[in-house]
Description:
Layout: H1 4-7, H2 14-30, E1 34-36, H3 39-49, E2 56-58, H4 65-68, H5 74-84, E3 91-94, H6 103-117, E4 123-126, H7 134-142, E5 149-153, H8 160-166, E6 169-170
Parallel strand pairs: 1-2, 3-4, 3-6, 4-5
Amino acid sequence: HDLRYFHYPETYTRLRGKFLEKMIPKSAYNAAKILAVSNATKKDIIKYLNVSADKIQVIHEGIDAARSQAQYSEQNYQSVKKKYRLPDRYFLTVGHLEPRKNYERLFESLAILAERYHIKIPLVVVGQENWYFQKIYDKVKRLKLSDSIHFTGFVNDADLPILYQKADLFIAPS
């Protein structure tokens, strides 16, 4: 999916890192074709694994149109809203809580929107705690955004489409 190990080796245990360091290049060498989810990943494969561009095919990830476009009843929405304690209006971001997701910069941007432009729509952050997540919570406190940023933790797949559909704006800060 990506070459996280080469960008963030500190996110792996030493044993896992040694395994990936050996097996990722070996797998790339042995593969007849490599599918990459983005041009950035393709460039990383070429750079870090010395693989010919001809061996790599980019196929962008898709969405489950049936789920993402499904119409949900107000009762479904109210149930999900209550379950995750959602505000009436919100911006949404989804991803593990870890530094590489760039949440700290997102929070700084929200603080600027609130201070300069008086835009104070809460942010709902969907994602489970991963590595160095405490820094993310600390940044929220330092920026005095605790009242406007809501962490849901893990959200099951059945509830996610409703959260996306009811958001005023989806943000992918990474």
